[in-house]
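Our working data are protein records whose layout never changes between entries. Getting from the letters to the tokens is the skill we practise here. To make this concrete, we reproduce a full record directly below:
***
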Amino acid sequence: MGLLGFDKTRMVSREKALSGREERMPVPERHTVLDTPLEGPYPEGTEVAEFGLGCFWGAERRFWQTEGVYTTAAGYAGGFTPNPTYEEVCSGLTGHTEVVLVVFDPAKVSYRQLLRIFWESHDPTQGMRQGGDVGTQYRSAVYVRSDEQREAAQESLETYQRVLARNGYGAITTEIAPAGEFYFAEDYHQQYLDKNPNGYCGLGGTGLSCPIGVAAVED
């Protein structure tokens, strides 16, 4: 249970969400691993994806280690409160989930390949939790920025659902929705596991492969 008995596994309504603030979170200038800017404008030809798969510390590392990824950032999306703090998101009263912003070069890694990493790196059937991390901030989500991304995400969900069902898993609970405002998380969250190599990482998948994005790069 969260603040004042609020159940953090239930989505807060827009009316009951925290009011937030106008001031943006300061954004570090450079990625500590890739030495690229965290904030746009990004190079011509790159595309942006947003994935929520539990605690963003381990999730961000999984994507920055992927060839073809230009930069990554930890942040909050899918909620109501403008410019939330981590403590506010943890309360369950902002509606946000922890996400990773992934800027990638589609000539080197396709969106479908990123989706495969997304599905295989967590258990998308757990609802408002991921392992021992419980609350709406840990829900599985794909926030799409084009019709092509939406179609690829939905197709991959249906493909992976068949794999999971054959192996005794329940329904995928992943939220697929248009990308709204992305709010950068605090400086200490950015590339957290590079700054804290022995830090917590709750990332863990089902062990089942997702048969999409296996080609080198799609035409």
